[in-house]
Amino acid sequence: MIVDVHAHTPTHTGPVPDADRLTYQGWRTDRPVTTTNSWDDYDAAMADADVSIVFNIAVDDPLASTGLDYRPEDTNAATLAFTRAAPSRRVGFMSVNPTRPDALDQAERWRAEGLVGIKLGPNYQEFDPLGAPALALYGWAERAGLPILFHQGASPIRHAPLRYTYPLVTDEVALRFPELRIVMAHMGHPWGKETVVTIRKHPHVYADVSSIYLRPWVCYESLLAAVEWGCADKLLLGSDFPIANTGEAIAGIRRVNDILAGTALPRVPAELIENIIHADALGALGLTDAITREPW
């Protein structure tokens, strides 16, 4: 089974009206990204995945032009409706801001509704990932058995603090919450080596490869580091829709060695790439029954 662990909830249930259509230049270097999309657009993008994990980032100060355009209530309601429409193929994660006074109440509410994990972007949501409110949410998630997928690494958004997404911050989180299942998005690009040494030491910390294939050297360096440090089995497939789609993600990591033609540099083993594509992501995150379970 192919599981795409990193996709964003569509902005529109039906076709996107021309007046609503938005693109953003900053997410890719080769072309602009259309940040408004329909349920059908999502299904087309996920055609090569059997199951996808879907979410958005709840921000209190929306940045519509970049695609960060959902307030907490909107993003979770949209994700829930979308996953309920195809529960055997879509697994929904909530997003909450730990600094909101009702954060834990909201987390419990959306858990009860059927969202089975949490997506956090401390840089976009403007909270300290090692601050007391965030630690309280991690503790709740650990007790409740909900995995957390963190945005890690670079962002083109100027106001988003890079220090909040540096991979070694996740090491601190995992030290305090050893049973919390964590996914480090984008292999922390460009800090792939820091991500690798973090997932290597923590049994329940993983990384997804979303978007790294858009930058060939980052992709090669990051995957080779996982090979050399013996933790390539901790890598999960992700596309980062709408920035890319599952097929593009698969093709991109399969091309990881293309830049090495004519060199003696070490290759990333082909079997490793196939293991990422077919990784048991739901099992790793404690979500084996996520596509069949009833709401709590």
TrEMBL record:
<keyword id="KW-0456">Lyase</keyword>
<dbReference type="InterPro" id="IPR006680">
    <property type="entry name" value="Amidohydro-rel"/>
</dbReference>
<dbReference type="GO" id="GO:0016787">
    <property type="term" value="F:hydrolase activity"/>
</dbReference>
<dbReference type="Pfam" id="PF04909">
    <property type="entry name" value="Amidohydro_2"/>
</dbReference>
<dbReference type="InterPro" id="IPR032465">
    <property type="entry name" value="ACMSD"/>
</dbReference>
<feature type="domain" description="Amidohydrolase-related">
    <location>
        <begin position="3"/>
        <end position="257"/>
    </location>
</feature>
<protein>
    <recommendedName>
        <fullName>Amidohydrolase-related domain-containing protein</fullName>
    </recommendedName>
</protein>
<feature type="region of interest" description="Disordered">
    <location>
        <begin position="1"/>
        <end position="20"/>
    </location>
</feature>
<dbReference type="GO" id="GO:0016831">
    <property type="term" value="F:carboxy-lyase activity"/>
</dbReference>
<dbReference type="InterPro" id="IPR032466">
    <property type="entry name" value="Metal_Hydrolase"/>
</dbReference>
